[in-house]
From TrEMBL:
<dbReference type="InterPro" id="IPR044878">
    <property type="entry name" value="UbiA_sf"/>
</dbReference>
<dbReference type="GO" id="GO:0048034">
    <property type="term" value="P:heme O biosynthetic process"/>
</dbReference>
<feature type="transmembrane region" description="Helical">
    <location>
        <begin position="243"/>
        <end position="263"/>
    </location>
</feature>
<dbReference type="InterPro" id="IPR006369">
    <property type="entry name" value="Protohaem_IX_farnesylTrfase"/>
</dbReference>
<protein>
    <recommendedName>
        <fullName>Protoheme IX farnesyltransferase</fullName>
        <ecNumber>2.5.1.141</ecNumber>
    </recommendedName>
</protein>
<feature type="transmembrane region" description="Helical">
    <location>
        <begin position="284"/>
        <end position="301"/>
    </location>
</feature>
<keyword id="KW-0472">Membrane</keyword>
<feature type="transmembrane region" description="Helical">
    <location>
        <begin position="118"/>
        <end position="139"/>
    </location>
</feature>
<feature type="transmembrane region" description="Helical">
    <location>
        <begin position="92"/>
        <end position="112"/>
    </location>
</feature>
<comment type="function">
    <text>Converts heme B (protoheme IX) to heme O by substitution of the vinyl group on carbon 2 of heme B porphyrin ring with a hydroxyethyl farnesyl side group.</text>
</comment>
<comment type="pathway">
    <text>Porphyrin-containing compound metabolism; heme O biosynthesis; heme O from protoheme: step 1/1.</text>
</comment>
<dbReference type="InterPro" id="IPR000537">
    <property type="entry name" value="UbiA_prenyltransferase"/>
</dbReference>
<feature type="transmembrane region" description="Helical">
    <location>
        <begin position="171"/>
        <end position="194"/>
    </location>
</feature>
<comment type="similarity">
    <text>Belongs to the UbiA prenyltransferase family. Protoheme IX farnesyltransferase subfamily.</text>
</comment>
<feature type="transmembrane region" description="Helical">
    <location>
        <begin position="51"/>
        <end position="71"/>
    </location>
</feature>
<feature type="transmembrane region" description="Helical">
    <location>
        <begin position="220"/>
        <end position="237"/>
    </location>
</feature>
<dbReference type="GO" id="GO:0005886">
    <property type="term" value="C:plasma membrane"/>
</dbReference>
Length: 302
């Protein structure tokens, strides 16, 4: 935690500062995968309730992000990538950020339960708790496997979207969970490889810091090789059709080629890590297109 003395110069925040606390870039991916889970689910939901469900997921994800920023203000202050975030930059006081985050957490879960369903609300509450407490408070500073276990938090949105429609959890949302869970390590470790100096400076035990680039690159390839067949499981099990199958197979081929390039790279400075930067950027596109193909498959072929 950052000391109150270091943050005593906080100025009055603008709405942009509070919005930044929600980690809007991360929230975009969360909202998209949640919406895809909702649209791909069998059955129908009232459009207004569907909108409420996605809004609650977005607010809940933002609340988790704000709790993360509140607790990690000391880390953010020493990392170049995060030093200008609202709390370390002094634009939002820590207690204000905490109050804001807790209010959004309680509000999003309560509205989800009352308007949509308590299973979806329970999943949303657990995902907020998992990211804010299990990952941020416990795992992040304790183990190089932090992003592997903590990645479960980001894998919940499509499951919540699915549960909002169906009121239950079947094999398909579990597979969607597994896809994001397995996608997270190669995505995040690609970033960690060229940001290793920042994590080392902040004392965060990311895999490149504790085990070195070579081990991290092999792990990126390993998870990528597991991710691709799991992403094709919906087709093999008859839960998705040829649109999803073709798109996912092509995306998976590119993902593995990029992961192989990462595994073969021997650069130890950020300027020589083009394969890692390419995989990190493509991994975002990969997940967006994969889930978009799932929805297209459901709307066109069902």
């Amino acid at each position: 935690m950052m000391t109150t003395q270091a943050l005593s110069t906080a100025h009055y925040a603008e709405w942009r500062d509070y919005f930044a606390l929600l980690k809007p870039r991360v929230m975009t991916l969360v909202v998209f995968t949640a919406a895809c889970g909702l649209l791909a689910a069998p059955g129908h939901i009232n459009p207004f309730l569907g909108f409420v469900a996605i809004l609650c997921i977005a607010v809940g994800a933002g609340a988790a992000g704000a709790l993360n920023m509140w607790y990690e203000a000391d880390i953010d202050a020493v990392m170049k990538r995060t030093a200008n975030r609202p709390i370390p930059a002094g634009r939002v006081a820590p207690n204000e950020a905490l109050t804001f985050a807790l209010a959004l957490s309680a509000g999003s879960v309560s509205i989800m339960g009352l308007a949509v369903g308590w299973l979806a609300a329970a999943l949303l509450a657990f995902s907020i708790f998992f990211y804010a407490v299990v990952y941020t408070v416990w795992l992040k500073r304790a183990t190089p496997q932090n992003i592997v276990i903590g990645g479960a938090a980001g894998a919940f949105p499509p499951v919540i979207g699915w549960a909002a429609v169906t009121g239950d959890i079947t094999l398909m949302p579990v597979i969607l969970f597994a896809i994001i869970f397995l996608w997270t390590p190669p995505h995040f470790w690609a970033l960690a490889l060229f940001m290793e100096a920042d994590y080392s400076k902040a004392g965060v035990p990311m895999l490149p810091v504790t085990h070195g680039p070579a081990v991290t690159r092999r792990q990126v390839l390993l998870y990528s090789l597991i991710l691709v067949p799991v992403s094709l499981a919906p087709v093999a099990l008859g839960h998705a059709g040829w649109i999803y199958g073709v798109v996912t197979a092509l995306l998976g081929a590119v993902f593995i080629v990029d992961a192989l390039a990462v595994a073969r790279n021997t650069a130890t400075v950020a300027s020589g890590m083009a394969p890692e930067k390419r995989l990190f950027k493509f991994s975002l596109l990969y997940l967006f297109l994969l889930f978009a193909a799932l929805v297209a498959d459901r709307l066109i072929l069902s």
